[in-house]
Amino acid sequence: MHHKYVVRDGSDVWTGSTNWSDDSWSREENVIVVVHSDELAARYTEDFEQLWKTESVEQSGFVEPNPIRVGDAKVRAWFSPGHGEALATRIAHRIAKAKRRIRICSPVMTSGPVLGALAEAVSDGKCDVAGVVDATQMKGVFHQWELNGNSEWKMPAIRRIFANGRFTGKNSMPYGQGDVHDFMHAKVVVADDYLFTGSYNLSHSGEQNAENVLEVESPALADQLAAFVDEIHALYPVAPIP
């Protein structure tokens, strides 16, 4: 259960990547979104009630991601595991359609559709691609892939992405080796004027978790999130290449 959201009075939603811990507020990069919308609040309430009533992650996230208007923006609320695979495909589709820029923040990147779309984007060289990951966690992913032959095919894809795109990585404290949690924890995808942000890492396992992501079509907000990614990107060294 990986959500981090609040619905207040059926009219306001607070969501994003931030766990409610001291380190999340003081040591980690995170994104918080506050939305005033009765219709969006109803979608989040529906997801909450599925979890609450069934007490089962597997039976949650079955909320249709139909578009709604919030001010000048078009917004979709995506929930997994009910729509986890569709969410990964949707993000990959927007990456593949991007013509100007792609910006990414994610602790790890292991989703097959996303890796495929990114590898193609950096290979084509027609779009400005940059991002930041958690280097410590990605090194752990590389080790797992080496042990798991089923995921070995992803290694050339991530190698091409990190070698040809502008990706950096934060060397955080390894999980479980201390009390400090200082991960690069933000989850953001910007593809031209579309943005995706929420609790979902760009990971295959995240498709089976209880997750939520807001997809927003808004040039102004996409510019704001892209600038945030660029700011974080500039803080860290080049991402590790397996």
Descriptive account of the structure:
With 242 residues, the protein is α+β, with helices and mostly antiparallel strands. The chain has one domain (6-233): Endonuclease Chain A (Endonuclease, Chain A), CATH 3.30.870.10. The protein is 36% helix and 24% strand. It contains seven helices and eleven strands. The protein has an eight-stranded mixed β-sheet, with helices on both faces. Strand 1 (6-8) and strand 2 (12-16) form a beta hairpin. It is globular and about 45 Å long. The two termini are 30 Å apart.
Per-chain topology:
Blueprint: E1 6-8, E2 12-16, H1 22-26, E3 32-36, H2 38-54, E4 68-70, E5 73-80, H3 84-97, E6 101-105, H4 112-124, E7 128-134, H5 135-147, H6 154-164, E8 166-170, E9 188-191, E10 194-198, E11 211-217, H7 219-233
Parallel strand pairs: 6-7, 7-8
Antiparallel strand pairs: 1-2, 2-3, 4-5, 5-11, 6-9, 9-10, 10-11
